[in-house]
Amino acid sequence: MDVSRPYAAVCPTVDGDVLEVLAGTTMALTGRQVALLTGRKSHSGVLAVLNRLTEHGLVSRVELNRAYLFALNRDHLAAPAVEILAGMRKALFDELRDVIDDWPITPVHVSLFGSAARGDGDTRSDFDLLVVRPDSVDQDEPAWRSQIDELVDLIRRRTGNHASVIERDDSGMERLRAAEPPILSELLADALVLNGSRSQLADMLEAA
Asked: What is the dihedral of CA 184, 185, 189, 193, to 10 degrees?
């Protein structure tokens, strides 16, 4: 999965970028606003897509003060599919949180970091995970290893991407700070918390 544009697996063209923008708001936007939000430099190319989608009825268009405003037609038969594609990242992260919440052995903390958390990678990007294990649980405990392996497998099946896990016990965060300062910077800047809280993560990194 392209972690910056997950919908590109199904809609890799400008159409996907335009629909992702329109699905993310209930406001009507000008063509120039849509182009700006897609990050596309070609306003004319985005406008051509908007006009084509309008012909299909998937996008509604109204004229206001000599400008056209565009919005996703949520009554269209295809609108639910568009919203699903636009919401793939959130759906994946929600599922990961639910899976971790149901783990038989509760972790101290789990965060996603790096390009997958920032949303600026591509199909080759790893899903980088920090998993903090309770001090009372051995790293080779079968039940613990099983839930980690199942999480990695779930990410691969859902996205096609590899999951890279950095695992430490609670007291091992000190060693992480000493050995991996670049990872600490990414965690502090980009961490997307899957279990626990951001304040908890900051406390662990500062205390480590």
From this structure: -10
- CA distance linking residue 98 with residue 195, whole number of Å: 9
Q: Could you read off the pLDDT of 50-65 as tens digits, one per residue? A: 999 999 999 999 998 8
Asked whether the beta carbons of 160 and 117 are under 8 A apart, the reply is no
For CA atoms 89, 14, 2, 182, give the dihedral sign: negative
Give me the domains of the chain, ranges plus CATH numbers.
6-85 (1.10.10.10), 88-207 (3.30.460.10)
Pairing of strands 109-113, 67-72: unpaired
The closest of 58, 112, 63 to 86, measured between CA atoms, is 58
Vertex 9: Cα angle to 70 and 80 (nearest 5): 45
Give dist(CA 193, CA 198) in Å, integer.
6
Instruction: Estimate the crossing angle of helix 43-55 against helix 31-38, to 10 degrees.
Output: 110
Which amino acid would we find at residue 185? S
**pLDDT tens, 68-103?**
999 999 999 999 999 999 999 999 999 999 999 999
**How do beta strands 109-113 and 163-169 pair?**
unpaired
CA–CA separation, 178 and 208 (whole Å): 9
